[in-house]
Amino acid sequence: MNSLKPYYPVFKFVITFGVLYMVLSLLYYAYLQVEYSEINYPDPVTAMVSSQTNYGMQLLGYDSKIYNAPGHPSVMLYVDNEILFVVIEGCNAISVMLLFTAFVIAFAKAWKETVLFLLFGIVTIYIVNLLRIIGLGVIFRELTEYKEVSHDIIFPAVIYGYVILLWIYWIRKPKQV
Description:
A three-stranded antiparallel β-sheet has the order 1-2-3, with helices on one face. It has helices spanning 8-32, 44-59, 94-106, 111-142, 147-171, and strands spanning 64-68, 74-79, 82-88. α2 crosses α4 (111-142) and α4 runs antiparallel to α5. It is mainly alpha-helical. It has five helices and three strands; from the N terminus they run ααβββααα. The chain folds into two domains: 1-34 and 93-177, no CATH class; 36-91, no CATH class.
């Protein structure tokens, strides 16, 4: 047993991370089980992301509109009266934020610093995700031959890469004077 003693911090991190991620995921699952209104459909965060994506597309000069998908928990984004793509719950980046949160808390030392970094990280992950979806909208409209590679490889790499950079900063964060 003494030979494992140097690894206790690693075990503590892995167990803390695993338990936190499971608890946060279960809470999120419960959140998704609530019946939401037609305005906040499929759920309030996905509805907000869809609305802001629509606004971003309009700022870029596209004639875009969003509609709730009948009988399916998603929002359809139309450009020039043609469906461009469907925004589903997985597009809201909540699961990425939960993963980020579990890691940061599992690696936490000072709570004030941890809370501030969590707020910064969650807000910026939300912004990066929103820019990701707007970027996908432009690619889906203008560069259709890159739809799959953008959706399946490039843009997931962007959001997960950003989270990894945040984690690296968190682990190696400069000492406060």
